[in-house]
Amino acid sequence: MAAVALRFSGAAVGYRGAAVLRDVDLELPAGQVLALVGPNGAGKSTLIKAALGLAQVVTGTAEVLGSSPVRARGETGYVPQLDVLDPDFPVSAQQVVLMGRYRHISWWRPTGRTDRQLAAEALDRVGLADRARTRFGVLSGGQRQRVLIARALVARPRLLLLDEPLNGVDATSQMTILTVLSDLAAAGTAVVVSTHDLTLARDIADVVCLLNGRQWAAGPPQQTLTAERLREAYGGHTVILPDGRDMLVEL
Amino acid sequence: MSALFLEPFQAPFMTRALIELVLLALICGPIGVFVFIRRLSFVADALTHTIFPGVVIGFAAGGLDGIFVGALIAGLVTAALLTLLTRRAELTDDASTAVLLTAMFAIGVVLVSRQSSYTSDLTAFLFGRILTVTPRQLGETAALAVLILGLLAVGGRAFLFRAFDPGGAAAAGLHIGRLDLWLNVIIALVVVAAVRAVGTVLVIALLIVPAAAARLLTDRLGDMVIAGTALTAGAGYLGLVISWSASVGYGIRLTSASAVVLVLVLAYLLLLPAGLRRRRRAVPR
């Protein structure tokens, strides 16, 4: 039995003592992929931030890699939503990836050849070895997302959390990202992905967690992505069904 | 022609002014880039004003030599206050910064208005006296430059990460509050270093304009630091030459610090079209 990488027990998570997501009970073993699914404002990003110790666990408990979320940060990787980053920021793809090495380098030591080599390998893994010196902001959305994933990879995390990593990315980037995530899981890394795409959740996840203000279901995709569960969680929202059709679900 | 550019520096006070401005360029170049990428121009501007009461109290207590200590204490206190206000207050960052700026500046004006030489003191505090810089003051600026660049060298990587992606930096274990305090303290030290030379009002130009102009030239942080430093030093030299020539050659009173700032702004305006062209070419694909 694989060790549990992420566990929420009876948890309510939020900010400044106010819960925005309740009744979270889930476990993610090492080497598995968890998809967080739900409409906008469902609490997907908040749950990811709670796993990183950036949002508060108001009640219940959160355990990350056998420790508290804050203590586990050294072994946790995070890929934020792309739209929170300034595309005009004067930084190259290589500099962004090197940020993932910062916590492994003493404050007084400059980044060295080993760090740059690891950054180059991470960029190569996401298919962007030739774009190392390109300014981050002039890359396409999909390429920028891959750079952020390379930044997470270079820190060699045991748990990787990605917030909407496939939003607005091109087909090439999507394929590369899914391959990387699949390889990571096969190598024993636990992966958490938030997404609106139910087809994707069904295809890549071992565990799906259906959220909308609270946890409506958690378990294997075939048990969670059912019409009944989706209707409960999404009432009145448009969702993409696993067969690719759009559907307006009403309570 | 060479006499025009070299003659002013035969006067020792002009040479000292140039050395002071080059020292300020060495610190304002790199720090200005971090102020620019963190979008802290308003916070930096606030720090230049919140230091004002410390400058006045320091002057009242210890004369010109007291300005340094007064500014230093006020700078460190207000750097901590600004960090606290912008992180904890229910007000927006801008509003809390503006409240502190206006409150501290008003206190400074009240204090300086109690001095007998009110007008000339106020002018000196606001716009500096670059031509009266003493060798001892040069030593103090050099010591502050070493301290500031040392603090930046240690924190620079973390500042970059925090500026680019605060959420990612926090997730990686960086303490955002401490980093913000650290950078605000550095900015306060820069203001302290520059305040006697260029005054509390014009120091903001040394922090912001060179970095903004450098951004028009390049996308690379390292190159921005070099360009910003060179621009500040070049503007310092040219500004001194222009103010000397205006005063000595034509009898026009032109304060040196103002001339330096005007040269910097002119450089920015000249670079603006090139920068806009570069931006148009670099539209994300």
Summarize the structure.
The complex is a heterodimer of chains A (251) and B (285). Chain A is an alpha/beta fold and 251 residues long.
What labels describe this entry?
heterodimer; A: 251 residues; alpha/beta; Rossmann fold; 8 helices; 11 strands; globular; B: 285 residues; mainly alpha; ABC transporter involved in vitamin B12 uptake, BtuC; 12 helices; 85% helix; 0% strand
* Estimated radius of gyration of chain A: 18 Å
End-to-end distance of chain B, in Å?
49 Å
Classify the helix fraction of chain A into a percent range.
25-40%
CATH homologous superfamily name of chain B?
ABC transporter involved in vitamin B12 uptake, BtuC
The separation of the N and C termini of chain A measures 39 Å
CATH class categorisation of chain B: Mainly Alpha
Structural category of chain A is alpha/beta
Oligomer kind: heterodimer
Strand order of the largest sheet of chain A: 5-6-7-3-8-9
Number of E-state strands of chain B: 0
What's the CATH architecture name of chain B? Orthogonal Bundle
What sequence of helices (H) and strands (E) makes up the elements of chain A?
EEEHEEHHHEHEHEEHHEE
Q: Class of the domain at 4-86 and 157-248 in chain A, according to the CATH hierarchy?
A: Alpha Beta
User: What does the largest sheet of chain A look like?
Assistant: 6 strands, mixed
Question: Which stretches of chain B are poorly predicted, pLDDT < 50 over at least 5 residues?
Answer: none
CATH topology of chain B: ABC transporter involved in vitamin B12 uptake, BtuC
CATH 4th-level superfamily of the domain at 4-86 and 157-248 in chain A = P-loop containing nucleotide triphosphate hydrolases
Sequence-ordered SSE layout with sheet pairings:
The complex is a heterodimer of chains A (251) and B (285).
Chain A: E1 4-15, E2 18-29, E3 33-37, H1 44-52, E4 56-64, E5 76-79, H2 93-99, H3 113-125, H4 141-153, E6 159-163, H5 171-186, E7 190-195, H6 198-204, E8 207-211, E9 215-219, H7 221-224, H8 227-234, E10 238-240, E11 246-248
Parallel strand pairs in A: 3-7, 3-8, 5-6, 6-7
Antiparallel strand pairs in A: 1-2, 1-4, 8-9, 10-11
Chain B: H1 2-6, H2 12-37, H3 41-50, H4 52-62, H5 64-88, H6 93-113, H7 118-127, H8 135-164, H9 166-171, H10 176-217, H11 221-250, H12 256-281
Helix pairs in contact in B: 2-8, 2-10, 2-11, 3-5, 3-6, 3-10, 4-5, 4-6, 5-6, 5-10, 7-10, 8-10, 10-11, 10-12, 11-12
